[in-house]
Amino acid sequence: MPSLYRAFGLTLQASRPIPGLSDSSEKAAAIDVYIDLESGWKCRPRNLPEKIWYQSPKDSDNTLLTVWRINQGAEFYFRYSDGIEFRVHRSGGRISAAWPAAAAPHSPFVL
């Protein structure tokens, strides 16, 4: 069952509870952001474009963050060096996320 939150003036609907946020008892007229924490496989695009949209400076030998524009610029795919991934719709209204077990061993978000 989806969880509903109010944070930063936005109404969020998440597919799982989000630690640190309290479920909102008020009913929202509209959801501002849908957050999918259930389907990590939806996060990773089938084919990444060769062109990287953004790459952070390296820390030691690792690039901490790499970002691609996908689906003709309709979405952004974020991949962190520890394997955490986000896929964000350009509007900001839909976010998918995935965490590998090694990145967050005690997280309720491990998929």
Plain-language structure description:
The protein is mainly beta and 111 residues long. The chain has one domain. The chain is 4% helix and 38% strand. The chain is built from one helix and ten strands; from the N terminus they run E-E-E-H-E-E-E-E-E-E-E. It has an eight-stranded mixed sheet with strand order 1-2-3-10-9-8-7-4. Strands 5-6 form a two-stranded antiparallel ribbon. It is globular. The two termini are 17 Å apart.
Short key terms for the protein model shown above:
111 residues; mainly beta; eight-stranded mixed beta sheet; two-stranded antiparallel sheet; 38% strand; globular
SSE topology:
Blueprint: E1 3-7, E2 10-14, E3 33-36, H1 40-43, E4 54-55, E5 58-59, E6 62-63, E7 65-70, E8 75-80, E9 85-89, E10 94-98
Parallel strand pairs: 2-3, 3-10
Antiparallel strand pairs: 1-2, 4-7, 5-6, 7-8, 8-9, 9-10
Residue fraction in strands: 35-45%
Quaternary structure state of the chains depicted: single chain
What Rg is obtained from the alpha carbons, in whole angstroms?
15 Å
Question: How far apart are the termini?
Answer: 17 Å
User: What order do the helices and strands follow?
Assistant: EEEHEEEEEEE
